[in-house]
Design goal:
Aldehyde dehydrogenase (NAD+), alpha/beta, 39% helix, 505 residues, oxidoreductase activity, acting on the aldehyde or oxo group of donors, NAD or NADP as acceptor, binds nicotinamide-adenine-dinucleotide, six-stranded mixed β-sheet, Ald_DH_CS_GLU, 2 domains, Aldehyde Dehydrogenase, Chain A, domain 1, seven-stranded mixed β-sheet, Aldehyde Dehydrogenase, Chain A, domain 2
C-alpha cells in the first residue's frame, strides 16, 4: 500500500496545521484505502484564512499589480500545472475516482487553460472605457473602470475538484482579488497541490488560501462570514439555496453553479449510431457524476426499442473498474454515500413504475467488492413526472421517455426545475439548431456532449444557478464596475449641476 500523504491547510503562503489538530481521511473510492489526511478545519481556521486574504488584498501586493504583472504570474502557473501533469492527474484520479485517461488529458489541460486564458484576457480588457460628454451640459468627463471585488470564497464539489476550483480562482486572481477555497471534504488534495503551484509561480502569500473541513459547519461559516465579499459556489441546488440566503444577508456577490437533469432530444432523422454514442457519453462520462449529464433521453416512440437495444449492446463492451488503469472506461462512484443515493433512486424508479431495461445493481465480485461501483442503468417507459426523472441522481442512470411529436419533446425537455445542459441529436443541422434555440438551458450540444471550454461561458438557467463561469463573463463576475465622473469646469459658478439647487447665484 502506498504511503498515506499528510497535508496542512494552505494559509498565508504556507501549509499549516488546523486549529483543532483533528484530521480527516481521504480514501481511494475504488479500494476504500486511506490515501491522504487533511486537517478537519473549524471556524478559527476560516477566520485565519480570511484575515490573511483581507490583509493581502488591502496591502495591494496583488490587487495593485498591473494586469500584465498578474498575467505573467498566472501564465507561469499554467506552465507549472502542465509540468506537474503526472502528479496532479494521479492524485485527482486516486481521490475522486475519475479515470486517469480523463484526468491526465482533459482535467490538467483545463486547469492550465483556465489560468492561461484568464491571464490573456486581462491583458486584453480595456483598462478604462470613456463615455461621451453629453453636448447639452458643461464639459464633463466620465470614465469606467473595473476593480477587484475583494475577498472571494470558492466552494467546490467532489466530482471535478481541480477544474471547478480553477474556474473560480483563475478569474478571481486575474482580476486582482484574494480568495479562500473550500474543496469538498472527500477530495481536497489537488486543490492543496494547486496552492503550492500558485505560490511557487509567484502569487503572494495570503492571496490564495485553502481551508479543509466539513461543508455543513465550516463551509457555512465561510459563506456567511462578513469578511467575504463574493461567494463562488459549485454544488447541489439545496446547498446553493442556503448559500444564496447567506449572500443575501450581506448583499454579497454570488455565482451559483448547481445541479441539473439535462434532456437529450433525439430527432426522427437521427443516425442511430450517433444517437447511441451520444446518449452513452452524455450519461456515463465520469460514471454519471457530472452536473450537466444527459439523463433524460427523449426519443421518438418508433426509434425507442432499436435505440435502447443498441445502448445495451454497447454498454456490455465498456470496461468498468480501476480508474488508475488507462484501459478503464468507467471508474468507481466517488463515495459510499453517493452509491447509496444511486441505489435509492433506482428503488424509487421501480416504485414509480419505470421498467429497468438494463443494470440497476451495485457491481460485486473481484475489484468491485473493495470499492463503490454501480452498473450503467437504463430505465424505460418513464414519465417526466416521475421522481427519478425529475430529481438529480448523479450516477450512471438514464431515464428514457418516448414522444410522439417534436413540440411534445421540447415541452418535456423544458419541463424541469433545472436548466443546465441539453442536447439534440439529428442529421438535419437547421432543425437541430431550431430545437436548440427552444431549449431553456445554459448549454446545448448538437450531436456531442460535455464540451466545456474556457473560452465559452458555462452556467445554468432556472434552479441550475445564476452567473456564468469561464471566458470574459467570469472576469466580469469577479469585478466591480466603477464610474468616475469629473466636472472639467474650474469655477464654482460654471458647474452646471450645482445650479439645479441654485448654488451658482
Ligand atoms: P454539495 O452541495 O453537497 O457540496 C458542495 C460543496 O459545498 C462542498 O465543498 C461541501 O463541503 C460544501 N458545503 C456543503 N454544505 C455547505 C453549506 N451549508 N455551506 C457552505 N458549503 C457547504 O455538492 P457535492 O455533493 O459535493 O457535489 C454534487 C453536486 O454538485 C451535484 O448537485 C452537482 O450537480 C453539482 N455540480 C454542479 C456543477 C455545475 O457547474 N453546475 C458542477 C459539478 C457539480
Amino acid at each position: 500500500m502506498a504511503e498515506v500523504m499528510e497535508y496542512g491547510m494552505f494559509i498565508d503562503g504556507a501549509f499549516v496545521p488546523g486549529d483543532s489538530g483533528e484530521m480527516m481521511e481521504v480514501i481511494n473510492p475504488a479500494t476504500r484505502e486511506v490515501v491522504a489526511r487533511v486537517p478537519r478545519g473549524n471556524k478559527h481556521d476560516v477566520d485565519k484564512a480570511l484575515a490573511s486574504a483581507r490583509q493581502a488584498f488591502e496591502s495591494g501586493v496583488w490587487s495593485d499589480k498591473k494586469p500584465e504583472e498578474r498575467a505573467e504570474i498566472l501564465f507561469n502557473a499554467a506552465l507549472m500545472v502542465v509540468a506537474n501533469k503526472e502528479r496532479l492527474s494521479y492524485l485527482e484520479s486516486l481521490t475522486s475516482g475519475g479515470t486517469i485517461r480523463r484526468t491526465s488529458t482533459v482535467d490538467v489541460a483545463s486547469v492550465a487553460a483556465s489560468l492561461a486564458i484568464s491571464a490573456a484576457l486581462i491583458k486584453e480588457l480595456p483598462k478604462v472605457e470613456h463615455a461621451m460628454c453629453p453636448p447639452w451640459i458643461a464639459p464633463m468627463h466620465s470614465y469606467i473602470k473595473r476593480e477587484p471585488i475583494g475577498v472571494c470564497a470558492g466552494i467546490t464539489p467532489w466530482n471535478f475538484p481541480m477544474i471547478l476550483a480553477a474556474y473560480k480562482f483563475a478569474p478571481a486572481l486575474a482580476m486582482g482579488n484574494s480568495i479562500v477555497m473550500k474543496p469538498a471534504s472527500i477530495t481536497p488534495v489537488t486543490t492543496l497541490e494547486l496552492a503550492k503551484i500558485l505560490h511557487d509561480a509567484g502569487v503572494p502569500a495570503g492571496v490564495f488560501n485553502v481551508v479543509t473541513g466539513p461543508g455543513s459547519s465550516m463551509g457555512d461559516y465561510l459563506a456567511g462570514h462578513p469578511e467575504v465579499d463574493k461567494i463562488a459556489f459549485t454544488g447541489s441546488t439545496a446547498v446553493g439555496r442556503r448559500i444564496a440566503e447567506q449572500a443575501a444577508k450581506g448583499i454579497k456577490r454570488v455565482t451559483l453553479e448547481l445541479g441539473g437533469k439535462s434532456p437529450l432530444i433525439v430527432l426522427e432523422d437521427a443516425d442511430l449510431d450517433v444517437a447511441c454514442n451520444m446518449t452513452l457519453f452524455a450519461f456515463l462520462f465520469h460514471s454519471g457524476q457530472v452536473c450537466e449529464s444527459g439523463t433524460r433521453l427523449i426519443v421518438p416512440r418508433k426509434l425507442h426499442d432499436a435505440l435502447v437495444d443498441k445502448l445495451i449492446q454497447k454498454i456490455k463492451k465498456l470496461t468498468i473498474g480501476n480508474q488508475m488503469d488507462m484501459a478503464t472506461d468507467l471508474g468507481p462512484i466517488a463515495s459510499e454515500d453517493q452509491l447509496n443515493t444511486i441505489k435509492e433512486y433506482v428503488r424509487i424508479g421501480l416504485e414509480e413504475g419505470a421498467e429497468l431495461a438494463y443494470g440497476g445493481r451495485v457491481l460485486t465480485g473481484g475489484i468491485y467488492d473493495k470499492g463503490f461501483f454501480f452498473e450503467p442503468t437504463i430505465f424505460v417507459n418513464c414519465r417526466n413526472s416521475m421522481r427519478q426523472v425529475r430529481e438529480e441522481i448523479f450516477g450512471p442512470v438514464q431515464c428514457v421517455i418516448p414522444y410522439d411529436d417534436l413540440e411534445e419533446a421540447i415541452h418535456i425537455a423544458n419541463d424541469s426545475p433545472y436548466g443546465l445542459g441539453g442536447g439534440v441529436c439529428s442529421r438535419d443541422v437547421a432543425k437541430a439548431q431550431k430545437v436548440a434555440a427552444k431549449m431553456r438551458t445554459g448549454t446545448v450540444w448538437i450531436n456531442t456532449w460535455h464540451v466545456l471550454r474556457p473560452d465559452v461561458p458555462f452556467g445554468g438557467y432556472k434552479e441550475s444557478g445564476y452567473g456564468r463561469e469561464n471566458w470574459y463573463h467570469a472576469l466580469m463576475a469577479y469585478s466591480e464596475v466603477k464610474h468616475i465622473c469629473q466636472d472639467l469646469t474650474p469655477d464654482a459658478d460654471d458647474k452646471i449641476m450645482f445650479s439645479l439647487i441654485g448654488l451658482n447665484k
